[in-house]
């Protein structure tokens, strides 16, 4: 990413050299180095970095104390831990200390650059997602139906209005995580689900549990394929889907989410009507770490 000013904090001359070379080759502007808390404070005030790579073991202190001092000077400065130590307890503490990311030594230069670029991504990245996600999700559902049923569904009533949803009987809700947070809802009646599941299983579902499991997996494939397609267009998105949650029954209402961008549509298929609702918002959808 152009002109990101990086300050390197590490007490090892060897690691300082490795980081400087890696960051410079990746196109970042290394503006300074520090090996102690005093040098961190001095350099942050002097060079005003956009981002600091922080070792955990600093003589007389640690990476967390250094991070707190950095944020006292400027809370907008991003800090990522680059350390040989990495475990759940350290990651939890890093999150509480407003660290933006964590990567373990020995680091891979491409992974380090990806982590920094993802953290520092600006408004242009969100606008890129805004411009492509609805068409990608449509393509993913068309491709899924074609591969699984050899049919082509039709999209109707497409809308970008964020509304609550009254379920037809089965609603599968999936969170989307990555650079941005999102949500997908895949809804259908029991009748539609039964017809679709019968084709996929080549027999009628044994019971409601099997029916719901089939629909949950369909939603998982749909969302996962769409996110993979978006990531191929720009790997900075780093989108992944969370495990699905299935709601079923009569009179199920799902309130609208706190999303800035939504796309909804009805899908007319040979098995009955379905509907999808997808949305995203600005802000970090997932704390950035590479484990």
Q: Could you characterize the architecture of this molecule?
A:
It is a single chain. With 291 residues, the protein is an alpha/beta fold. It has two domains: 5-120, Rossmann fold (3-Layer(aba) Sandwich); 124-290, CheC-like (Chemotaxis protein chec, 3-Layer(aba) Sandwich). 42% of the residues lie in helices and 30% in strands. It has eight helices and 17 strands. It has helices spanning 13-25, 37-47, 63-73, 88-96, 109-120, 123-149, 190-201, 208-233, and strands at 5-9, 29-34, 51-54, 57-58, 61-62, 78-83, 101-104, 154-159, 165-166, 170-177, 180-188, 240-241, 245-248, 253-254, 261-269, 272-284, 288-290. The strands form four sheets. Strands 8, 10, 11, 12, 13, 15 and 16 form a seven-stranded antiparallel beta sheet that branches. A six-stranded parallel beta sheet has the order 2-1-3-6-7-17, sandwiched between helices. Helix 1 (13-25) links the parallel strand 1 (5-9) and strand 2 (29-34). Helix 2 (37-47) packs parallel to helix 3 (63-73). The radius of gyration is 23 Å and the shape is elongated. The chain starts with a strand and ends with a strand. The mean pLDDT is 91.
Blueprint (SSEs and pairs):
Blueprint: E1 5-9, H1 13-25, E2 29-34, H2 37-47, E3 51-54, E4 57-58, E5 61-62, H3 63-73, E6 78-83, H4 88-96, E7 101-104, H5 109-120, H6 123-149, E8 154-159, E9 165-166, E10 170-177, E11 180-188, H7 190-201, H8 208-233, E12 240-241, E13 245-248, E14 253-254, E15 261-269, E16 272-284, E17 288-290
Helix pairs in contact: 2-3, 6-8, 7-8
């Amino acid at each position: 990413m152009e002109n990101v000013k990086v300050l390197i904090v590490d007490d090892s001359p060897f690691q300082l050299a490795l980081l400087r070379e890696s960051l410079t080759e990746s196109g970042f502007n290394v503006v300074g180095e520090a090996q102690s808390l005093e040098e961190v404070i001095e350099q942050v005030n002097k060079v005003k970095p956009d981002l600091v790579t922080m070792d955990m073991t600093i003589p007389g202190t640690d990476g967390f104390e250094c991070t707190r001092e950095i944020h006292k000077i400027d809370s907008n400065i991003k800090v990522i831990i680059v350390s040989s130590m990495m475990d759940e307890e350290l990651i939890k503490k890093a999150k509480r200390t407003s660290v933006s990311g964590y990567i373990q030594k020995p680091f891979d230069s491409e992974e380090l650059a990806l982590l920094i670029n993802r953290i520092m991504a600006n408004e242009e990245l969100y606008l890129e997602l805004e411009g492509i996600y609805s068409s990608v999700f449509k393509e993913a559902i068309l491709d899924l139906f074609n591969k699984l049923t050899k049919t082509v569904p039709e999209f109707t009533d497409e809308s970008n209005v964020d509304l609550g949803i009254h379920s037809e009987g089965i609603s599968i809700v999936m969170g989307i995580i990555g650079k941005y947070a999102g949500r997908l809802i895949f809804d259908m009646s029991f009748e539609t689900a039964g017809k679709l599941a019968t084709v996929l299983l080549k027999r009628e579902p044994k019971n409601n549990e099997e029916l719901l499991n089939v629909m949950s997996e369909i939603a998982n494939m749909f969302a996962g394929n769409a996110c993979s397609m978006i990531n191929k267009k720009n790997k900075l998105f780093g989108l992944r889907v969370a495990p699905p949650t299935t709601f079923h029954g009569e009179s199920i209402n799902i309130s609208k989410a706190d999303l800035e961008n939504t796309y909804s549509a009805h899908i007319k298929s040979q098995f009955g009507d379905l509907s999808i609702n997808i949305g995203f918002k600005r802000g970090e959808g997932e704390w950035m770490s590479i484990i």
